[in-house]
Design goal:
The protein is mainly beta and 388 residues long. The protein contains five helices and 14 strands.
């Protein structure tokens, strides 16, 4: 197949660098990670996912936890099921081969991730998709590529089966501990012993071309419409898809005294949660926690407080917010919630503070009653951002 017969689809790649300080934490946060286990799912009907806050991985002082956790996000078109007579199902097959390359000043290192490997040598707990019953097995593995150890497709590979759900978990493709060596890779970085800046490049494809999403039944245009993908005019109708993304400029500081990397997440002591029967009630509760009526008004803080407001009622639209460093001609644009490696997020786009008019009150105007109801803020300083 000619090279121009392939459609290159961008994928988001994230890299989480864990040095000793990040691993052991400084008590301002904790590492809550767990894995799914299907070993007794069929025999005892045991849920594969542990109860909340139980079955957590041990991290403190564990050298095997160090390194970079690299995960790639499947395009949303490949992570959607279609409604059938039996409910939600018919998830499309996803790419089952991924080339991961790490580059840094010391050279290049590469791995081939065989996402649909089934067997006891697999990396994560799963169910055998070809067994008659719920048979536990293991899924996914990786192969390091070297001059003496190139990749060769296995002779006994099975019929394609891998979807975004993996063994049947809705969060399988977006939660890294579930999909290790399937849609993610843990690079221990043991060969990078000094401070360095590393980058990762990820390229994926279907090992069996007839299972490619573009090789399905139907017209090319209909397939693209169903996937919600757009190809500029004049590019023809590619019959094969490739998937590519990168995470560049990842700082690696392996020293025991290296600081924790800066984070955009707010300090836990600065987070206040208000609960109410309405947005107004919840906002008033947050305002009371900060110091009472008007404590969060932009004018009181000169628009410098970086408050983040969010109202959740089946993703209720956020209130508009302002920033003093943006010209008044600019406008906020809050994108809809989107999947991210840590959960769901909405963008944080600053909006200008409107000019403050001078106070205008007639001399005869009565003073504001002390018993007036508390004001509910209609603006903070940033559009909401929720990160898992």
């Amino acid at each position: 197949m000619a090279l121009n017969d392939s459609l290159v689809v961008p994928v988001e790649v994230a890299a989480f660098a864990v040095n000793p300080q990040v691993r052991d934490t400084d008590d301002t946060y904790v590492m809550h990670r767990w894995t799914a286990e299907f070993l007794t799912f069929g025999s005892r009907n045991t849920p594969p996912e542990p109860p909340p806050f139980s079955g957590l991985e041990e991290w403190r002082d564990r050298p095997e936890r160090l390194g970079a956790y690299v995960m790639w996000q499947l395009p949303s078109g490949l992570a959607r099921g279609r409604e059938t007579d039996d409910g939600i199902g018919d998830f499309p097959l996803v790419p089952n081969r991924w080339l991961v390359t790490r580059s840094w000043d010391g050279g290049v290192r590469s791995w081939l991730v065989e996402s649909d490997h089934i067997g006891e040598s697999g990396s994560v707990s799963s169910l055998d998709p070809h067994a008659a019953g719920a048979t536990p097995t293991r899924l996914g593995r990786r192969h390091e590529l070297t001059a003496s150890s190139p990749w060769r497709e296995p002779d006994d590979r099975r019929e394609p089966f891998l979807t975004a759900l993996g063994p049947g978990l809705l969060t399988f493709s977006v939660y890294q501990p579930y999909n290790r060596d399937v849609f993610s890779l843990h690079d221990t970085l043991e060969d990078v012993t000094a401070d360095a800046r590393v980058g990762y490049r990820v390229i994926g494809w279907y090992a069996q071309e007839d299972s490619d999403i573009l090789a399905g039944d139907g017209e090319f245009g209909d397939i693209m419409d169903d996937l919600e993908w757009i190809l500029p005019p004049g590019y023809g109708a590619p019959g094969r898809s490739l998937y590519a993304g990168s995470a560049l400029g990842v700082d690696w500081k392996p020293g025991a005294d290296a600081p924790i990397p800066e984070s955009d997440n707010p300090d836990p002591v600065e987070v206040v949660v208000g609960i109410g029967n309405s947005t107004a009630e919840a906002s008033a509760a947050v305002e009371e926690e900060y110091g009472g009526t008007g404590s969060l008004e932009p004018a009181r803080h000169g628009c410098s407080r970086r408050s983040r407001w969010a109202a959740w009622r089946t993703w209720t639209a956020p209130t508009e917010t302002c920033s003093p460093n943006v010209p008044h001609t600019a406008r906020a644009s809050a994108p809809p919630p989107a999947a991210s490696p840590g959960g769901w997020s909405t963008g944080a786009t600053p909006t200008p503070c409107p000019p403050s008019p001078p106070p205008r009150r007639p001399a005869s105007a009565p003073p504001k009653p002390a018993s007036s109801p508390p004001s509910t803020p209609s603006s903070g300083n940033w559009t909401p951002r929720k990160e898992g």
